């Protein structure tokens, strides 16, 4: 019973971390789209340190739970899964910081193209992240599978962003630096989607014991 309560608290801490990461992603995109420097600075100055503390705390708790309670079977798999998601969220946080840094550059420059496709990528990445965490909490493999399917939309939007920017860079060298930052934003969104798929694939393995790694590549 004690371990069960500890696991519930552990998962709740992970949810808090995931919510922070999701809010960071949403804020970084809104900062870019609405050209709001305050939101971008808030990510760097306040949210990133909080995220780092979550990552360290979750890793520490997981290690202590394994050492103190000697969990087996599903309890052990759950702890290992939280540790894995914790690592994925930390990497997602790094990608959000990359987006934020590029956004700080971009909002200071004239806009060279509409951000519609990047906005769509952002919405899709946020949904995939949220759904992958919910799939873990609910042990919902149907939702996890849906996250994997949604990756193709993100990939196509990424290609479209590049297709739109290449002619601009060719026609006007002055747009190259701005274009490269936009591509960086899109690439980091694509990586966030990929990490959400990692989480979803691990959920499928946790619940069904079925390995689906690399199935969607």
Automatic annotation (TrEMBL):
<dbReference type="Pfam" id="PF01895">
    <property type="entry name" value="PhoU"/>
</dbReference>
<dbReference type="GO" id="GO:0006817">
    <property type="term" value="P:phosphate ion transport"/>
</dbReference>
<keyword id="KW-0592">Phosphate transport</keyword>
<keyword id="KW-0963">Cytoplasm</keyword>
<protein>
    <recommendedName>
        <fullName>Phosphate-specific transport system accessory protein PhoU</fullName>
    </recommendedName>
</protein>
<feature type="domain" description="PhoU">
    <location>
        <begin position="15"/>
        <end position="101"/>
    </location>
</feature>
<feature type="domain" description="PhoU">
    <location>
        <begin position="118"/>
        <end position="203"/>
    </location>
</feature>
<dbReference type="InterPro" id="IPR038078">
    <property type="entry name" value="PhoU-like_sf"/>
</dbReference>
<dbReference type="InterPro" id="IPR028366">
    <property type="entry name" value="PhoU"/>
</dbReference>
<dbReference type="GO" id="GO:0030643">
    <property type="term" value="P:intracellular phosphate ion homeostasis"/>
</dbReference>
<dbReference type="InterPro" id="IPR026022">
    <property type="entry name" value="PhoU_dom"/>
</dbReference>
<dbReference type="GO" id="GO:0045936">
    <property type="term" value="P:negative regulation of phosphate metabolic process"/>
</dbReference>
<dbReference type="GO" id="GO:0005737">
    <property type="term" value="C:cytoplasm"/>
</dbReference>
<comment type="similarity">
    <text>Belongs to the PhoU family.</text>
</comment>
<comment type="function">
    <text>Plays a role in the regulation of phosphate uptake.</text>
</comment>
<keyword id="KW-0813">Transport</keyword>
<comment type="subunit">
    <text>Homodimer.</text>
</comment>
């Amino acid at each position: 019973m004690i371990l069960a309560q500890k696991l519930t608290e552990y998962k709740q801490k992970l949810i808090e971390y995931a919510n922070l990461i999701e809010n960071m992603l949403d804020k970084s995109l809104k900062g870019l789209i609405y050209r709001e420097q305050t939101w971008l600075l808030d990510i760097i100055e306040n949210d990133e340190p909080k995220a780092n503390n979550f990552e360290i705390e979750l890793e520490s708790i997981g290690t202590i739970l394994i050492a103190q309670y000697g969990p087996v079977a599903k309890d052990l798999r759950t702890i290992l899964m939280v540790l894995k998601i914790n690592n994925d969220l930390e990497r997602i946080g790094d990608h959000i910081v990359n987006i934020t840094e590029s956004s700080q550059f971009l909002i200071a420059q004239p806009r060279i193209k509409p951000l519609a496709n990047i906005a769509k990528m952002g919405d899709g990445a946020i949904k995939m992240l949220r759904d992958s965490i919910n799939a873990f909490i609910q042990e919902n493999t149907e939702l996890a599978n849906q996250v994997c399917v949604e990756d193709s939309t993100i990939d196509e939007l990424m290609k479209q962003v590049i297709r739109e920017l290449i002619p601009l860079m060719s026609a006007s060298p002055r747009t190259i630096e701005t274009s490269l930052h936009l591509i960086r934003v899109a690439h980091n969104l694509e990586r966030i989607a990929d990490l959400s798929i990692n989480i979803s694939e691990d959920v499928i393995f946790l619940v069904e014991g079925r390995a689906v790694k690399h199935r969607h590549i």
